[in-house]
Amino acid sequence: MSLVKSLYDASPRPLRVLYTNAYGVANIRRFRKWNRLLDSLAYTESLSREQQIRYVDQRLKEILSHAFTQVPFYARFASLAKDFHSRSAFDILRELPITSKEFINRDPEAFLAADRRNVTVSRTSGTTGTPFTIVMDKDVFLLGDALWWRRTRWAGYRPGDWIARLVGDPIVPLHEKNPRKPWIISYPDRRIYLSTFHLNPDTARSMGALLRRRKPRFLMGYPSSLEILSGYLKDSDFVMDWDLRNVLFSSEPMHPHREALVKEVFRTEIRGLYGSGEKLVSAAQCQEGTYHLSLVDGYIEGQFGIMDPVEPAAVTTLVNRAMPLIRYQIGDMIETTPDQTCSCGRTLPIMSPVITKHEDWIITPSGRRIAPSAVVWAFIHQDIADIHKGQVVQEEADLVRVYLNTDETTFARYRDVLKTSMDKVFFGEMRVEIVRTEKIEVTRAGKSRFIMNRYHGSQNP
User: Fold this and answer.
1) C-alpha distances in Å from residue 120, one per residue of 29, 116, 134
2) What is the CATH number of the domain that holds 395?
């Protein structure tokens, strides 16, 4: 755990409120940068298909040329650069190998550019349980955040609107098992931070009462967390009595049963966002319910009908020169529809809603429901590396086993720290066993589920 996070958790609530509001002041500057960047990219929303292809072709050539000269792994393909004037980038791309987290993790240094300046390092895990460290230019990180923000602008956001967040913001320390106020309000940027980690019937009622008092224009959350909150609010006879413009979701699939419950409770439309922790590709849902690819951050094979699609989807960055991910399989099944148009008027490429792994949640003996994205926090925030795959399985009412596919030395290094982190996530209600394994269970589609609930499986759709 970082020193800053340790200090935050050790601080009394008034100081944590002060820290969060100071962060809100910095957020205002970020919003301004995002808006300026989005304004400069507005023209890409109306490009013709031919213009889009030329745009991506040029940027693919730029990133491939850079990789051939700066990235050790791709130096062996440098001879392909001579064909840039006579062949499209899509043709050249076909001759390069497909990569993945596991493939790159064998020798990550080979995928780093020799010339790296002004970069940031980000760790991802997502719902696959496979940790991955990505180095990216800071401008790429800024672009990724701006493109995610565009979904909120499309949903009708106006300066001054309040947004309630039910995502992975660890704003209430996990050692507080039953906080009286499971939230923190940031006034400068008008954000209501709700603790995803503390959802139970009592905290859900207090969150519902807060939302009715503050009347935010938007509620943002993970689908599983939104489902849990909506279920508790429905059971408590929560009454929706203000104009909530949209519910915004990301990071997990919004299955039909979840969408129906959230709409029933909050009485508004839902807008989705698709993105990757690698800031490699993104898509926002417009008012017609269509997912539009951002076009400017990454290229998905098949999006123009030029290359055959790969499963799972293979994506190539158009912007990250520090660690250019090329033909990188992000683990999701993405279907693009090159011939489809949208009545919203935007010409950006269209993709179908992403079908990812269906995750269960962990249900503690007291009835507390722990969302998959909250469990992911234990992996990412303990800086766990060298784990090939992980899987969290509820075996009994009070027993969770965490399976780690790794060698004995690495397992010994992380076993205790991960158990401590998991104990906090489950509030000490579960017996947690950390188990080393040679094989992680996979679905019939060949994809592993990060969370499995064998004990409550019949209760989870």
Assistant:
1) 19, 10, 8
2) 3.30.300.30
Instruction: Take residue 59 and report the two structure tokens written for it.
Output: 């940027």
CA–CA dist 359, 450 (Å, integer): 7
CA 119, 378, 197, 363: dihedral to nearest 10 degrees? Answer: 150
Containing 433, the helix (H) or strand (E) segment is strand 431-436
Residue 331 CA to residue 320 CA, distance in Å, equals 19
d(CA 104, CA 235): 47
Q: Calculate the alpha carbon distances from 186 to 10, 69, 199, 232, 391 in Å.
A: 19, 46, 20, 25, 35
Number of domains in the chain: 3
The answer to whether 323 and 113 have CB atoms below 8 angstroms apart is: yes
Q: For the chain, which ranges sit under pLDDT 50? A: 127, 358, 443-447, 458-461
Q: How far apart are CA 409 and CA 437, in angstroms?
A: 13
Say if residues 235 and 133 touch (Cβ distance below 8 Å).
no
Within a domain: 254: no
Whose tokens are 């709700």? That residue is 194
| Residue 230 resides in a domain | yes
Per-residue pLDDT, 386: 53
A 10 A CB-CB count for 405 gives 18
Element (H, E) at 20: helix 13-41
Q: Is 152 a member of any domain?
A: no
Query: Where in the sequence is the domain holding 316, given as residue range(s)?
Result: 47-146+277-351
**pTM for the model:** 0.81
Structural tokens at position 62: 């730029």
